[in-house]
Amino acid sequence: MIRKLLLGSAAVAVLIIIAATCTPLRALLLPRTKYSGPILPPSTFVVPHERMLAWKNNSALAIRVYESWAAKPLDSFQKGGKGDAPRILLGRLLTRRQLSESNQYIIAAKPWGVAGTSGWQNPKGDYDFAESVLTTILWLFGEDSTALIPAARDHLLNVLLTEDGNAFRATAPHTLGLFEETENHLLMTEGSRYLKNRWLRMHGNTSPRFDNEANGMESRLLSLLEKMRTAGFHEFNSQPYIGYTILGLLNLEAFASDRLRTSARDLLDEMNWNYALGSYRLRHFPPFRRRYEYAGMTSLTTGYQTAYMTSWLSYAPTPLELTGLQRGGETHAIIGACLPYRPPDAVVRFLFEKGDGYFVKIGHGIEASPEIYSAGPGFLLSAGGVNRGERSVIVARPITLLLDDAADDLSNVVHLAGPGENFRQWNNTGVAENFACAAGPVHVPARFAAAQETGRWHAYAAGTELVIAVYSTPNVGLIAIVRSPDPADVLSAIVAANPDEPALAREFVFPNGRRLTYDLHSPRDRWVMISSSGVSYDREFDRWPLRQGRL
Question: Which residue from 61, 170, 368, 465 has the highest number of Cβ atoms inside 10 Å of its Cβ?
């Protein structure tokens, strides 16, 4: 075993030495900066934190999720990975089912791996996926001996929770400190370490090893959360990792010190404010980083942040129109439902109402993709973003138009993308206020019937006061949103304002005279939009603030 470890370490060292002296290999082997990207310019508008809603204490959806988990058979704890056992145990404790069997299961369990990113260098990694849920169990039931008996609690604390002390690990295991750890693993691993220390300290253990103030864990986690707040998330909107990032933050928000709870809550509020601005009625289809195998998803409701949001909103004081939990949603809904965090009032409001409208751009830093949203009463235009090269692991998606309806799949909403069908070739950042463009056709579902047609222009009525004007060719797709009860008048005015059809490949004029220019084949580090009525846009979105725009 020792020989294998030495050989493995030697191999890693050789690769690193070669990479350090060879530019192509260095680009291949050494990772890009992750969560510790440069601090972005501050937002131009404030994230709301006010909470005045009187949330209910019970939720029918939460009970349904708890019972669903409690009814599952316990598999081997040694199964590893993102196995179900910790959530089944949590479901049983929450519903008070099969407590004797569950306690004995905990007492017999042994850690099956180590925390942190798994891979060839760490084949038994990912234990923090289990450890973070076991941390939730400890804090929810550790003082309730009628649910978690002392022997099971002590085994969970002293054996199954393997991280403690001050060994804050910012890099992935067994990478000689050179490969930065990902955000979800950092929050789950170091959050579990901190919360085990805190539990021990609060229950009489006076060893300096477990004093989070003295050993630096408090300050390092505060610094980590502040870095994520000011530099943004590397794993933005990630499938599937956003769910585990939120899990780590929810544990801290529920059980940490007052300072750390506040920091975690503020960061959750920022994430959920972005979600509220970029979604409509719990449908969310933004660009995301990690993983490419999720690029084919077409459901508008399968994001794991949507699962958390659904679980929180099930406690709302007045009934809300919630989406059903989609594939994998119960994995995160059980955590969202049983922990105390609830989103700010403004987040809840903007999820379902867009007020008088807004135009918002969300920056994600160097070599990332921005999010761009234009909204108004009854609609949301959501930019699909841009892939920044194979190693960026960014999935660009079609630009989508979400309306005040129940459509929950890409095939049922107006959308556009291009050029071609490969998302790695798209720059789908072409969204401005009430406008979208791309180097490809507009796909209009069969359920829409044009109220007016003129050449390649079609006008559709969405409700009584909203007109969707669509221009579509194989290489140019445009959408213009105009508030009006009369599609015929709108289309006539648009055609009159844009008499030169070939010019539509580079500019569009609204009936009110507002002229937009754009480059449908913009390089991947530039916003597609160029100017509005002669005023140039800042197109270098690597430098954009965390949030900017008109609210």
Answer: 368
With beta carbons less than 8 A apart as the criterion, state whether 503 and 471 touch. Answer: no
Whether residue 419 is preceded by a cis peptide bond, meaning omega within 30 degrees of 0, is yes
d(CA 315, CA 57): 7
Closest CA to 430 of 495, 500, 508: 508
d(Cα 175, Cα 334) in Å, to the nearest integer?
34
Residue 81: phi and psi, rounded to 5, are 60, -140
What are the Cα distances from residue 290, in Å, to 18, 118, 159, 236, 319?
27, 15, 32, 8, 34
How many structural domains comprise the chain? 2
Q: Is residue 191 part of a domain?
A: yes
For 381-406, how does the pLDDT look when each residue is reduced to its tens digit (9 = 90+)?
Answer: 999 999 999 999 999 999 999 999 99
252 is in which domain, residue-wise?
A: 31-50+60-281
Q: Does residue 344 sit within a domain?
A: no
Neighbours of 420 (CB within 10 A): 11
Q: How far apart are the C-alpha atoms of 118 and 188, rounded to whole Å? A: 14
State which of 281, 298, 332 marks the end of a domain: 281
Is 347 among the domain residues?
no
**Alpha-carbon dihedral 44, 287, 386, 444, rounded to 10 degrees:** -110
pLDDT bin (cut points 50, 70, 90) of residue 20 is: very low
Q: What single letter denotes the amino acid at residue 522?
A: S
- CB neighbours of 489 closer than 8 A, spacing ≥ 6? none
User: What is the C-alpha separation between 471 and 366, in angstroms, rounded?
Assistant: 33
> In terms of domains, do 114 and 223 share one?
yes
Contacts of 113 (CB under 8 A, 6+ apart): 80, 124, 125, 126, 127
pTM of the complete model beyond 0.70: yes
CB 268 within 8 A of CB 275: no
Q: Which two structure tokens, joined as six digits, stand for 56?
A: 């209910």
Q: Provide the CA 325 distance to its chain's centre, in angstroms.
A: 16
Which tens digits make up the pLDDT trace of 103-162?
Answer: 999 999 999 999 999 888 888 999 999 999 999 999 999 999 999 999 999 999 999 999
Q: Which two tokens stand for residue 394?
A: 């960014």
What secondary structure letter does DSSP report for 261? H
Average pLDDT over residues 59-80: 91
Give me 26's structure tokens.
Answer: 């260095």
DSSP letter, residue 157: I
CA 5-11-17 angle, 5° bins:
135
Distance of CA 431 to the CA centre of its chain: 21
